[in-house]
Each structure stands twice: as C-alpha cells, then as structure tokens.
Amino acid sequence: MSRDPVLLVTGATGLAMSHVVRCWLEAHPEGRAVTVDLNPPDAVVSAFFAPFSARLEFCAGDIRDADFWNGIARDFAVSHLVHGAAVTSINRMTIQEDGSADMAGALPALDVNIMGTLRVLAWAARQPNLRRCVTVSSGSVYGPRGPSPLPEDIAVEPDGLYGISKYVGELYTGQAARQFALPALAVRLSGVYGPLDRDTGVRAVPSTPGTLLRAALAGEALRLSGLEARGDYIQAGDVGRAIVALLDCASPSHGIYNIAYGETASLRELADLVTRLVPGATWRDAEPEAAHLSLEAHPAGGRWGAYDISRLRQDCGWRPRPLEEAVAEYRDWLRTYPY
User: Fold this and answer.
1) What is the distance between the alpha carbons of residues 251 and 249, in angstroms, rounded to a whole number?
2) Fewer CB within a 10 Å sphere, N or C end of the chain?
3) How far apart are CA 231 and CA 306, in angstroms?
4) Which CATH number belongs to the domain containing residue 148 in this structure?
5) Which string of b and e fits 18-29 if b means at least 16 CB within 10 Å?
6) End-to-end CA distance of the chain, in Å?
7) 304 neighbors 231 (Cβ within 8 angstroms)
8) Which of 72, 77, 45, 19 minimizes the C-alpha distance to 193?
C-alpha cells in the first residue's frame, strides 16, 4: 500500500463529486484517488478524468455492501474520504403515473441515502490512516424561511424525503465524530451547476444556468417564466475546491459548512448574463407552458435565499469565483463538450 495520500470519493461520476476528484488530483500531484460508483464511468466521465488516469482507480460497487468495503480496505490505504453518493430524485419517485403519491416508490433511494451513508461511516471509523471524512449534504435540509444569508446553525426544516435523508446523514456524521472520534464533518451545497451537469438517472433535474446556456448555444431565443425567482448558484469547480480545502484544513472549527456562492441571482439576471456571454442570444418573457424554463418565485430567505459562507472563508480562505467568470467557463465547456 502506498503512503502517498489517497482520496476515496463515493458518487464520483456525478456532477459535484467528479470535480472533487479532479481538484484533489490537481492540488496533490503525489496523491491518488479511488472512485466508487455503482456503475463504471462512461465515456463522458472518462474523458473528464483523462489527464489524471495514471493516479485514478475506478471501483464499481454498491455502498450498502459490506463485502465491497472489506475489499476496499484490503486494497487501499485511504487517507481522505468524501461521501457524495446519493439519489437526488427521491421526491419525484413518490409520484405515480396517475399523479398519486406513494412513498414506497422512494424506498430504494432512501436505502442508498440513509443506510448507504451509515455503511460508509461505519467503514470509515475503522480505517487507521483516515485523516478527514466529509459527508456531502444539501441545502434541502433548510426550511423555506430564515435570514439571508442563511447560517449553518439555524434550525433545519427539510420538507421532502431527499432533504430528510440528507439531514439523517448529517446526524450520523456528527454522532460518528463524537462517539468514535471519526475526523468527520458535513457540507451543505446550494444549487450546483457546471461541466458534467446532465441527466444520469439519479440526477434528473438540470441546473438553471445549464438550461439557459444550452438553449442559447443552440441558437434558440430563450422563453422564460418566473423572472424574479432567485437562487444561490455555485459552480461545480468551486465546490470541488471548497471540499479539497476542507480535506486539507488542519483544524476545522465546525461540523457543518455551507458551500455556496453566498449571494442570489434571479432568473432575469442569469438570462441577461447568458445573453452577454453568448453572442446573438436573446430572451423574452413567456407563459409557463411555453417556456424553456419556468421557475417558481419563493419568499426571500430560507433555502431559496443566499447561504452564509463565512465559516468556510474563515477556516480555509476559500472564496467562489465571480459568477460571470464561473458561468463563462461552463459556456466554454459546453461549446466543446455539449453535455
């Protein structure tokens, strides 16, 4: 087993976690990474990781499988772990074809998000070389009300099965840190967009910036509804840098960190930005049924408002890139890789 740092990432072929892997390998030229997913990477993900293939190991397996984790322990001396594997489309699974609700449809996804997280943390607590463990949670744990920017220590109020499952993962993480001295913390992500934002089955809702950019690059006049709807949008590359900063942080002061842009942007503001970045692009107001994108305007604050990122800035010196710079990078990616 190598003594060089080894990062293991679950859900590593997904949007945010793929950027964690790349940012780690960029920041640690002596390091290696192990990615864990139920299925091996497809051509899109393989191309994304191509510059680092010599230091990257793909392991296909179910995070709920104890035998799988026993094999990982034999083969790799993992020093850092990021658990991001999750099914994000749980709430949609509860709706049947006739429009009725049935919680049973969400049980397999809840099994992944809850029991899978418990299995990962139980394995992590037995690893003698582990220096840091990060559980990836979501702003979905926050309720619809609250100050702006939204601090991590506010009372949470998840209003869907996905948010509930992520909050349970946070509780597991905190308990493992206290009871078993696991060097673990959790992060809550706001709305993530960027390269590799695509429908993978477990991620079935495209980001707002991605939807706008794809339509604009295709030469379509953007038809939009809900122009004043706002969100805190963070580029996946910035998420990757933030999580790597926490992995490398000598003494994190907190058990929970927001990873977000720290400010909101309205659909109108994003549309104006995209039309500046894509020559010839235009947009107009439209009725919801005729729109490329129809968003619901929520009351200011709460999970739909800005997130407080001062903890991460103070402990790690991390800041997100300016919104225009981050969206422009994503535009350039989509011009070369239209997915």
Assistant:
1) 6
2) N
3) 7
4) 3.40.50.720
5) bbbbbbbbeebe
6) 37
7) yes
8) 19
Range of the domain at 189: 6-194+235-262+300-320
| Structure tokens given for 122 | 């139980």
Q: How many domains does the chain have?
A: 1
Position 122 pLDDT exceeds 80: yes
Does residue 71 fall inside a structural domain? yes
Domain-embedded: residue 135: yes
Residue 1 has pLDDT above 50, yes or no: no
From CA 286, how far away is CA 223, in angstroms rounded? 5
Within-domain flag for 326: no
Backbone angles phi, psi at 336, to 5 degrees: -95, -40
What is this structure's pTM? 0.94
Omega before 149 cis (within 30°)? Answer: yes
26 pLDDT exceeds 60? Answer: yes
Does 270 fall in a domain? no
* Interatomic CA distance for residues 234 and 259, integer angstroms: 8
Helices (H) then strands (E): counts for the chain: 12, 14
CA–CA dist 32, 103 (Å, integer): 40
Structure tokens at 30: 């002596």
What is the CA angle 236-36-124, rounded to 5? 100
